[in-house]
Amino acid sequence: MYLILLVILIAVIIFYQIRRRKRHDEFWKYVMAIPGPKGYPLLGTNNVLHTPESLFERDRKRGREYFPIYKMWSLDFASVGLMIPEDIELVLNNSKHINKSIIYDFLHSWLGSGLLTSGGTKWHKRRKILTPAFHFNILQEFIEILNRETQILVDNLSKICDQPYVNVVKPITEYTLFSIGETSLGVQLREYSNCFQYKQSVYDFGESFTYRAVRPWLWISFIYKLSNSYQKDKKTVKTLHDFSMSVIKERQKSFAQDKSNGSYSERKRLALLDLMLQAYENGADIDIEGIREEVDTFVFEGHDTTSLSLCYTLMVLANEQKIQEEIYEEIISVVGDSSIPTYNELGELKFMERCIKESLRLYPSVPLIGRIAGEEINTKSGYTIPKGCNITILFYDLHRLPEIWENPEKFDPDRFLPDNVAKRHPFAYLPFSAGSRNCIGQRFALLELKAALFGILRNFKLVPVDKPEDMKYKTDLVLRPAGEIRVKFVPRLINI
């Protein structure tokens, strides 16, 4: 068996060496001119088997050492990391660079070619179908659900607030998962027995994704399929798909019942899943498998990213007592003695919104994205990215550049006062990406964050346990903490 694998590996090495030599000389000439770490034959710059934690630190170190641009390569694949807004704008503001990079291929077994991973005509068609689900009028109707889920969250925190601290990841993840279930899918995910198994499978897939990313030989499909990692991923993906298909089948039944009894036509709001089912029945270019792709995409992106953002916000506000109290005072001044805010009242919480934006600067839920250069790019930093090259846009590093953000590690919501925002490059702050492929659900995410913060800060005072400077992270699909995110919750003595 080992002899067969050795022969295969030698054949692969020869194949990729020949393939690389045949590739256009200009491509590698431009790539190799870009600064970057020392490369080794075949493995290139991926010559160390990093842990998820050390991989995150490696990328931060490379960003500092080779700022503002650096190259990475393995086999015949090359990628260029970008950190300054002038270079990032060249990519995100040009529709020729709309296709995602090779790293997104690793997501296809789970997310297929949905909105996150697809490109070209398919992406445009899907975006057109899904955009109405996040219309302003629909978001207004979501507030009732978000307030109800927030109250459940507050009740759950009340039961455990006598503990020395709470690892907020679990309760907050449940809040965002159940919120996305009822708002976007129109179902109560609490009723699904495999819901919590789904949550664990999301974590498992993220770990497997990182494992594969640092092993270039596993980028090659047929070698990957011979690995134990592939067999493990198949089981994980089956769990993920079983969950999403059970949601779709259940919603199909109730959707058909609504239509038959006439209540469908009376409803003002169509959940995202309903919109897709309606498009499917009307003959649009989407089938049940396509609906499954989008359900997987939105359940993952709609709960995991927002969950972590809220967790980091609670942690940082616990360490910023003065700012925390300013938010509380704003809540009381806007809403008074009401415990249930309206959509418009949440919109009036301007200081809270600035705090959320500053938290997203320091802790962008998605720390990087990847694209493919659709044409040659002459960067503002003085280098040429050849057509076909992978591009990694490093939001985490962009958001902490001292050249843009004075004292970048400091939590300062005044950075988002209108006058200060106007002074910055429009591509200096990108928690939801930018351009035509920006996050379709960003307004929903902000509304969800505000609703949760309203309920939590109105009922509890946050006391620090973990400090921002002590936080460690690991490379994952999202900005995942290496450990817990711990906060102490103290019930407010006087609820106005």
Automatic annotation (TrEMBL):
Annotated membrane topology: Peripheral membrane protein
A cellular component term, taken from the record's GO annotations: endoplasmic reticulum membrane
The UniProt record lists the keyword Heme: yes
Keywords per UniProt: Endoplasmic reticulum, Heme, Iron, Membrane, Metal-binding, Microsome, Monooxygenase, Oxidoreductase
Superkingdom of origin: Eukaryota
The protein's required cofactors: heme
Binding site for heme: 439
One GO molecular-function entry: iron ion binding
Gene3D superfamilies the UniProt entry points to: Cytochrome P450
One Pfam family this sequence matches: p450
Cellular compartments annotated: Endoplasmic reticulum membrane; Microsome membrane
Family the UniProt entry places it in: Belongs to the cytochrome P450 family.
PANTHER family: CYTOCHROME P450 4C3-RELATED, CYTOCHROME P450 FAMILY 4
Job description of the protein: May be involved in the metabolism of insect hormones and in the breakdown of synthetic insecticides.
Protein's name according to its UniProt entry: Cytochrome P450
Species assigned in the record: Psylliodes chrysocephalus
Higher taxonomy: Eukaryota, Metazoa, Ecdysozoa, Arthropoda, Hexapoda
